[in-house]
Amino acid sequence: MGSTSPSASHDPTNDEEACIHAMELLNGFVASMTVKAAIELGLIDDLLAAGGLAVTPEELVAARPWPRPAEAAAAADRMLRFLASHGVVRCTTEWRDEECVKILKNCHRALPANGKVIVIEFVLPESPEPTPAAKGAFTLDVVMLNRLAGAKERTEREIADLAAEAG
């Protein structure tokens, strides 16, 4: 029932590329959802309020009510370690433009004199392209459309506009 044409034969290189692409998509989703959860739980605000001083996960969770207090410190610690390992704040996908600008302004204010905000994101091409990267970005854009109100992938120009508006 299967085709014996060369184009239909099994190519392990394509499997490996597809697996890597799937992991990149998953990693981006997990990172962005972790940032979103940390913001919603107030962890980011509490870290900023500490003014650069070291704060333990136990101190962070003591400041707010948590659904499962016994697990809160460990959960906060794992989330913050994950975010620290990425070294970036993802804000351009999961948020409306106004929220992105607010987050980027807060990042900009918190920077040292020569600091930089680094945004790592899938970038939508200005027009559709038949490349794996473009397909992945457009797929994520449709997922955002269906799952998160106002969320979307953006073109390089749209990201630059958000950064310019934020300062």
UniProtKB/TrEMBL annotation:
Domain O-methyltransferase C-terminal: 90-167
Keyword S-adenosyl-L-methionine annotated: yes
SUPFAM superfamilies reported in the protein's UniProt record: S-adenosyl-L-methionine-dependent methyltransferases (SSF53335), Winged helix' DNA-binding domain (SSF46785)
Example of a GO biological process term: methylation
PANTHER family: O-METHYLTRANSFERASE
Record PROSITE patterns: SAM_OMT_II (PS51683)
Protein name per Swiss-Prot or TrEMBL: O-methyltransferase C-terminal domain-containing protein
GO molecular function annotations of the record: O-methyltransferase activity; protein dimerization activity
UniProt keyword terms in alphabetical order: Methyltransferase, S-adenosyl-L-methionine, Transferase
